[in-house]
Design brief:
Radius of gyration: 21 Å
Number of strands: 14
Order of helices and strands: EHEEHHEEEEHEEEEEHHEE
Strand order of the largest sheet: 8-2-1-12
Length: about 260
């Protein structure tokens, strides 16, 4: 979801990120290099003791940070992996430090070819959160739900926010934005939000583990990049006869 160039209500370019978990935190960090202000809207309240958050599924389970994730995180937040080691996150050599039984036999423990970090989600997220929120250009609204968007089918202009402590019948407040990023995860209500302003939501389909997800969103982006403002574009996912999306596309720069 994006909107064309603007200056926001308080001056300067303003980006809003919905969801303050790892994806939202890293999105805010990147956006801070391009926007004057970034606001994170998070429905939970961050724990003072660095513990698990109620809104994170399996948040108390051990988590694994693979080599690719380490490289990506380190490129965004230099020194993060060293901080993770200093915090005591176990570093496990693969496959030397693993004991693996599969199909009736033990796997050989050959020399290490890669390392992973295993630790708590709260520990890792807490390190990232402290680094990201140290940037004065980024602020966070905790205990707040995004309940909709403002704007119309041609442009998203902001979000509607309701504090979780408020009466659910209370009118939400408007948070203007030049760019809105949805990082709220699998429970996203983006489709309803887009429909609420007359825009075309992305079509979602149930999938089973191991089955590929049709690249409808990729096809949609490609179609929209060449569409005229008044064009109506139909997209059909490969090998899925029932998958079709009809949208009115408008192309505009993000800022």
């Amino acid at each position: 979801m994006n909107s064309a160039g603007g200056t926001g209500r308080w001056g300067g370019r303003h980006a809003v990120v919905v969801g303050g978990s790892l994806a939202g935190l890293l999105a805010a960090h990147v956006l801070a290099g391009h926007a004057d202000r970034v606001t994170l809207v998070e429905r939970d309240r961050y724990p003072d003791d660095g513990g698990a958050r109620s809104g994170v599924p399996q948040g108390r389970h051990p988590h694994v940070l693979l080599q690719g994730g380490q490289t990506a995180m380190e490129s965004l937040l230099p020194g993060l992996i060293a901080q993770l080691r200093e915090a005591g996150a176990p570093r496990v050599g693969m496959p030397t430090d693993m004991v693996l039984w599969q199909n009736g036999r033990w796997f050989r423990r050959v020399p290490t070819s890669t390392y992973i970090y295993t630790g708590s989600r709260a520990q890792f997220e807490g390190l990232v959160r402290r680094r990201v929120l140290a940037n004065p250009a980024i602020r966070v609204e905790e205990g707040a739900d995004v309940v909709g968007l403002t704007g119309d089918a041609s442009r998203v202009r902001g979000v509607l926010v309701r504090d979780r402590s408020d009466d659910s019948r209370a009118a939400p407040r408007v948070l203007d934005a030049d760019l809105v990023v949805d990082a709220s995860g699998g429970g996203t209500k983006a489709a309803q939000w887009l429909a609420g302003i007359g825009a075309c939501p992305r079509t979602r389909r149930p999938s089973t583990p191991g089955s590929p997800t049709p690249p409808v969103s990729t096809a949609a982006r490609r179609a929209s990049s060449t569409a005229t403002p008044s064009a109506t574009t139909s997209i059909r996912a490969p090998n899925r006869s029932t998958a079709a999306v009809r949208c009115r596309w408008r192309t505009a720069p993000i800022w």
